[in-house]
Amino acid sequence: MSRTPPNPPGATRPQASSTAVARLAGVSQSTVSRVFSAGAAAVSAPVRERVMKAAAELNYRPNALPGILQTGRSGIIAVVVGGFYNPFFTEFLRCVTGLLRERRLEIMLVDTASDDNLNDIVGELSRYRIDGVISAMAIHSAKVARKLESAGIPIVAVNSKRVGNMRTVSTDNRAAGGVAADVLVDGGCKRIAYLAGRDSQAQSERERGFLKRLEERGRRKPERVLAGFSYEEGHAAAVELLSAGSRPDGMFCVNDLVALGAMDAIRQAFGLSVPGDIQVVGFDDIPMAGWRAYELTTFHQDMEALARGSVELLVDEPANPRITVPCRLVPRGTTRL
Amino acid sequence: MSRTPPNPPGATRPQASSTAVARLAGVSQSTVSRVFSAGAAAVSAPVRERVMKAAAELNYRPNALPGILQTGRSGIIAVVVGGFYNPFFTEFLRCVTGLLRERRLEIMLVDTASDDNLNDIVGELSRYRIDGVISAMAIHSAKVARKLESAGIPIVAVNSKRVGNMRTVSTDNRAAGGVAADVLVDGGCKRIAYLAGRDSQAQSERERGFLKRLEERGRRKPERVLAGFSYEEGHAAAVELLSAGSRPDGMFCVNDLVALGAMDAIRQAFGLSVPGDIQVVGFDDIPMAGWRAYELTTFHQDMEALARGSVELLVDEPANPRITVPCRLVPRGTTRL
DNA sequence: CGTATCGTTGAATAGCTATGCAGGGGCGTA
DNA sequence: TACGCCCCTGCATAGCTATTCAACGATACG
Q1: What integer pLDDT is reported at residue A150 of this predicted model?
Q2: The predicted structure's pLDDT at residue B114
Q3: What is the distance between the alpha carbons of residues A16 and B327, in angstroms, rounded to a whole number?
Q4: Where is each HTH lacI-type domain found (chains A, B) (predicted)?
């Protein structure tokens, strides 16, 4: 055990280098490198064994950094999520981490809501020579996208409008909005309301499809309340809606959290029944939508497909830079259908 | 614009080096480095300006890798979470990402349930010269901890038993278990049940404190049902318990997800009332515990404190390698108190 | 005017691995 | 024996930045 200089606080113990292993094993550094290289390198059995033994003794682990320095490829993908409050994001994260790990790519996590923050972060990611970015924020910034592009970092955005050369993968929000309209109309709803999210691509597409189908079926424009994306906001929006005296008998909500908040308001604060008095449709199919207290009719976003699309778009660079993933209605207990 | 060799698919556009900037600005590479170094380096105003202009033209971003190569410190912390299903983990993740970002540390995300997987991952993290690991798995592996230690990578574990030189930060699970017993006993419960999680430090500490206090207060051992950690498992466990004919009037659940599942079983499947027929206490205080349909009495884990403790323990390396964070009862509507 | 000092800049180097190139030895074949 | 070939190993190098040391000019002071 040789003495090493004192480390700054929090420093890792200095790692053995391949040169040190080589010295101990009585071979050259190249040979050590070959032993640890993935390809079936040409190393004789006895030498290989000696190297392995020396490596074990020194606790040697190959260092990826010099390789990155030469190739410029770090094998690291940044995943940007816009707030963890929504289980939708965490489920997406779960799927993506699994897929990236299969491809032996590392995940750098970036959590941000504000744009300023993201601006700094672009610089930070460049410093580490990130190979690409998968962005699953609720609200995307065109400015940041362009900045990444100018830095030469490819980006895939989920449920986002296309900016520059950005690749996108999206749920077919518009089609689902249409189906939501069908469900409520076919279920016999006469006075329909829409609980909207803040401005985002997903939100506006869902609303567009919903409005279009309602119009096609001869209904007038539904009442619209701004709810945001959270349970509390959904609850407040429903209270506002029902307090104002309007009594809708059908509600389409921008996502499940909003829908669940609205349901609780309808039932607890107003003593009304779902689906008896008001039918409710959500979006995302987060686990809570299936909980017995809710049994929410909603749309299942195929997270597995969204995640796979993101990774393929980023890594394989297929010809078509945009993927649309269908999503399916999950009929449960909050609608008549 | 000089020609560069073709890139492999998915490669980032090659980044300009400080040497290239230096050439364009007509200065030395050292000078460019000084302009971009944080400390107020001694560079004259006109030179600085010329360098900045050249850098902007080439879209230059400093490369962190050579520095890492020399110092051995990557500025990257790995955060290991054991499954995203529990909002507890995601909330922890949110807090930790914020704190690490403040300290200008990057986050490498590792999601794993299985140990085998983790074993590979230790090697992977060494390759990137990770500065440290924050582990928030439900179930920790002593083997992995030792392997990390032998690799010289410091580790902080949350709600885990101490292994080797590992640093730990934990909620005071045992004390909280005692308070849970008080709440149920003081609330008048006569037949108390415990819905247990799978083997983990948090689980066993909560149970230990709970049992000890019940004994101190002259109650006999509560009925114990194994539930796991999820909503579905909690639901199933409660169904099992109530179907078996035993009719507890108080329940302490290893976490909120289990408690919410149990509540839905009690109410929907058996038509019983909470807290009328059965009082329920959970653990974690995830957002859903406050939802109007549940209003679950539970213990708030101070995630902010747990996260801060983790980061400080890892980065500042204080004398005491273990931190215990108190947690507080949040009385809501599922108990009489 | 001589010297010390300071501010600014350049040259050289360390940090570690993968890889191309060359050399050495062994073996088979003519 | 001579030659060619293959297998294995070592040598040298690129990749980029921060930092140390030296050098240079200018300024200030005695």
Answers
A1: 83
A2: 63
A3: 43
A4: 16-71
Q: Do B65 and A65 touch (CB under 8 A)?
A: yes
> Which candidate from B110, B129, B291 shows the least CB-CB separation from A63?
B129
Nearest by CB: A126 against B61, B104, B264: B61
Dump pLDDT digits (tens) for A153-167. Answer: 999 999 998 888 889
Q: pLDDT tens digits for A16-51?
A: 999 999 999 999 999 999 999 876 668 888 999 999
- The reply to whether A7 has its C-beta less than 7 Å from any atom of strand D is no
User: What is the least distance, in Å, from the CA of A323 to any CA of chain B?
Assistant: 17
Could you give the domains of chain B? 18-63 (1.10.260), 73-170+304-325 (3.40.50.2300), 173-302 (3.40.50.2300)
Q: Two tokens at A107?
A: 């995940």
pLDDT digits over A283-333, tens only? 999 999 999 999 999 999 999 999 999 999 999 888 899 999 999 999 999
Stated as kind and residue range, the H or E segment containing B158 is strand B155-158
A1 has pLDDT over 50: no
Distances (CA, A) of A2 to A21, B71, B73, B232: 14, 19, 20, 55
- Residue closest to A132 by CA, chosen among A167, A162, A101, A159: A167
Element (H, E) at A306: helix A303-315
Q: Cβ atoms within 10 A of the Cβ of B146, count?
A: 16
- CA A97 to C1' D21, in angstroms, rounded, equals 47
